[in-house]
Structure formats: C-alpha cells, structure tokens
Amino acid sequence: MSIPAQKGYTVLVIDDNRELLQLITDTLTLLGDYTVLTAENGADGLILAVESRPDCAIIDVKMSGLDGYQVVRALRGDPETAAMPLVILTALSQDHYRFAGLLAGADRYLTKPIKPPDLVAAIHEAIRTSQEERLTRAHALIDEPFERTS
Amino acid sequence: MKDVPFVLRAERQIYAEYDRDRRLRLSKFIAPTFATILTALLLASLIVPQQFHGTRSNSGLIILCDALFLLGAYAAWRKWVNIATGSILLAALLIMVLSVLVNQPFILSDLFTVPAVVIIGLSALIGLPWMILATTLLTTAFVFILSGSPSLSHDLANPNNVNSIGAFIIEQWVLAIIVFGAATGYRRILRQISDVRVQYERARQLDDLKDQFITSVNHELRNPVMLMQGYVELLRIKGGELPPERRDEMVQRASKAGDNLAQLVQSILDTRRIDQSAADFQPEAVPLFDAVATAASLVDPGEGPKVERDLRVHVPEGLAVWGERVRVQQILTNLLSNAIKYSAPGTAVEITAHVAPETSSWTERWRHAQRTEQRMVEIVVRDYGLGIPPDQAALLFHRFVRLPRDLASSTIGNGLGLYLCRELTEAMGGRIWVESTGVEGEGSAFHIVLPAPPAAPVLAHRVSAPLQAGPSDQGGSNA
Description:
The structure holds 2 protein chains of 2 kinds.
Chain A: E1 10-14, H1 18-31, E2 35-39, H2 42-52, E3 56-59, H3 68-77, E4 86-90, H4 95-104, E5 108-111, H5 116-128, H6 131-143
Parallel strand pairs in A: 1-2, 1-3, 3-4, 4-5
Chain B: H1 9-47, H2 53-57, H3 59-77, H4 81-102, H5 113-126, H6 129-147, H7 153-156, H8 159-238, H9 244-277, E1 284-287, H10 288-298, E2 307-314, E3 320-323, H11 325-341, E4 349-355, H12 362-371, E5 376-383, H13 390-393, H14 404-407, H15 417-427, E6 431-436, E7 444-451, E8 463-469
C-alpha cells in the first residue's frame, strides 16, 4: 500500500497487477490531478477504503483472497462507505460478469483495455453521480430483462 | 464408417459400458422372471403333488436353479455383470438337465432340442461371444452323456434315432455359429455407434476447452494491451510536458508489456508447431544433471520479491536420457516454473531421477517386451505447494486447461505448459503424469519417464543448491 500526497480528488486503486497499478497511477496523476492510493489485494484495499475514505475506488475483479465483487459488496454494505463511488475495472468482458458487478453495487463497469482519457472521464462521472442517481440506476438494472450472451 | 484413429482408456470404457449396460438390463429382466416361475413351480408341487410328480422328485435341482436365478438377479442389481450372466446360463443348463430328468423315462424327441436352443440363444443375448461357443460345447457334451443313458438303449437301437442325435448336435452347432456371427456383427455395429459417441464427446470437450481458452487468453491479453496502449496514449497526450527520464521510463514499460504480449502469443503458436512436428527430432544422449542445471537457470524469477528457495537435485552422475536436449530442458523448465509458481515462497523444490524399475506385473512386462527392450529413466519434480485435486489431475495435460482454482486466482498462466510437456515427452517415447493428494502443503510430484540411452552408468551424486526465484510468469504453464 502507498499513500502519496493529497491533491484534488483521492482515488483508491485495487489491482493485483503492479504494472497496471503504476499505469493507472500515472494516468490519474497526469491527466486528472488526482491523489492515488493503491492496494495489491482486496483485503488491503478494503482496509484502505475504510481508513482513507477516498472519493472513488477503482477495483479489479480477479484477485486472490477477496475478489472485486466481494470488495464492492463489503463497501456498499458498510454505512460509512456505502455512498462511495465505485468503479470496476476488469479484463472480464462477458455480459454476465458486467451484470454481476453492477448488481454488487458498482457505479461503472469498465473493461480492460481502456484508454487513459476514457478512464479519467469515467472516474469523473462516477464521482459526480449522486447517491439518488446511484439508487435509480440500481433499480433500473434490476427491472430490466437480462439476456445472457455468453 | 471411419474408425476413430486412437482410443483413450476412458473412451474405451464407453464401448464396454454400452455392452455391459445392455447385458445388465436383460439379466435384470430374465433372472427374476425365471426365479419367479421356478418358485411358483415349487409351490405348485407342494399344493398339488399329483400334478407335479416330476417336479417333487427333482425339487433339489429346481431349488438349485432357483437359487442361481436369484443370485443372477442380485448380481444384476449390484451391477456384477459377469456373475449375473454366468449364473443365468448355469441355471439354464441345469434346467436342460432337469427337463430330461423330469420326464423319465424319456425318449429321443425334441425334448432337449428346445432347451438347448433356448440356452444358446440366451448366451447370445446376455453373454459374450465366447460364452455362445462354451455353452454349445456344454450342451453337446450333455447330449453325448445322455446318449449313454440306459433309458435310451431301446431308442438307440433304432438307426433313425441314432441319426437324430447327430442331427441334434449339428443343429446346435449350426445355430451356435449363426448366433456367434450375429453377436459378433452386433458388437461391431455397437462399436461403430460408440465411435460416434466418442467423437461427440471429443467435440464437446474441445468446445468446452475452446471456451475456457478464449476466456483465459482474453483475460491474459487485455492486461499487456492496456499497458502498451495506456503508456503510448499518455506519452501522446503528456509526453511533451514530461522530463526525458520519465518519458524513457514510460517507453520501457510499454516495451515490456509488448514483450509479454509477444511471449504469450509465441507460446500459443508453439503449440501449433509442436502439433505439426512432434515426431520430428534427432535423439541424442542428454546428460540429466546438465539439463536440470540449465533448466533451473532458465526459470524466470519474475517481477516479484526475490525469495531464496532450496532446489534439491538428486540425479545420479552420468545418468542420461535418450531425447532432444532442448526439449528435455523445456520440459524441466516448465515443471520447475510451475513448482515455483504454485508453492509458497521459501518452500523447497526437489528433482530426483533414477533408472525406472522393471514393471512388476507380468502382463506389463509382456507388453513392454512386445514394444521394445529399451530401459527407461524416471524423473520426478516435486514441490510442497497447493497440490492438485486428484479428480482434476488428468485434465491438466490437455491444451488450454487450467484448474478452476487457478482461473479464479491472479496466477498467470494460459494452460499450455503441461500440454507442451506431455507432447514433448510423448514425442520422445516417454510419458508424464502427476501424483498429488490435493492437500495444500503436500504439493505435487510430476513424473516423467523417458528412454535411457544404451548402457547408462549410474553413480550416486547429490547436490543441493539455492535457487533465487519469485513468482514466475514464464512458460505459460499451470499446475
């Protein structure tokens, strides 16, 4: 875990791939002027999220120990972090994974590879999303008929 | 129909299952039916003895037949197919004897033609082809024995009746040969139907593996692509504002991601190359200790924290295998890489090798003698890691297969390493398998058996060497 100096929004990135953590850190600091916190596994990420209350968390899905869905559910289940904007960033591109991620409580489900400007825009949008909008989206998702494509 | 070119042991089982199932179903019907009839006959002989005089006088034999049918029914229920069919056929033979004894004094007639025909037919229905011939032999013997019976002396005085004994035997054997031919033909058709089933199963498995491969490769490709694309994009947008050393660092990261991508693609392409030229190699004597040392040096320590590991090598001096040096090294590198990747940092990895002992069973010795008198060398690569669930062990040597546990984890792999090991080992005339309890900490032992070059000297030699290694992402193998 690393905690750089504060500036602008604080974003927590949880991913077990160090090179990707570095890329996302570079992306967010260069393009978004964000402060970036990083964690290499779900458990560390969860602790850091609760302790640091970042403005947004970017979470990978496939990680040893706690996976991304579990981290999202845990954060949404804790009243202290329930309103935190959460973005899933994963290589799992099939619709059923996407659906599972959004149902777990993520605001956005992004698939790798994503270009740096698109990532920054998605995080910006997630941070701007209000709690009411988040709930409305979740209800709409549950009401929509879901077709499994893969 | 074109035959399936080779059949695996599991697939061969499908053929056997078809026939076994058919025989069991028939046995389950025949045995209880006859047992009920005989029981009813015994009860009837107790209630109205006058009408069933013959039955009463032979009640011992009838009870024996009944017991055999009951045994057949029980064996069929327990799926002991050979005991079930054997009991039924034996009981049927006894009924034939009984049918003669009950009708004392008997005359030569169609008396035992019908039972004999029934028994031969029955053996064709529920037995194996050889059982048809065995049953016919027994019925023929019975006819011969019967011809010596005193009650036939009058009948046998008639030359026509003597001829009819010969006719019975000829009838039985003609019937047996026809039924044998039909049964053999039926089994051939059954085998051809099974071929379709085998091909279907293979196609289905291949389909599953393709899905798994696409999911796995899809995941593995996306990370390096994102790294490459991300740094190139950052450099495009912000490159002009960054100091030169920062730009160089980003270029290096993008370049490394490109290398990883190329390596992944290469390992996928390697499997095609192996498929195409598996048997095309020049064998030579490959000293094992040197191969192990080279393989250990080729294992990529990876990007993770450096961890001291004990690599225990116990390879007799001068021991060599008959194969291709590069292939032997590649197998050992893949197995060592797996051992490191799937075991806790700091745990030991062991490599042992010895001349494989002679096979103990005489059937295996005979089979080996049919193939070759080549001596074999066994190499074992053991780790003390996660282990492999025994029910999933056999699947690991197929292309693109990864354990569900590893698919869910962050351990990198594409399911090709062990497939390559198997292909390379088999191409050199060897075989590979894994032994593991699946218990974490007990690890797994990969065994490779390769041919030994002629007259390999064996002297004890033990070396223990530390191996600097971290979690490896090299080799694309999985365990």
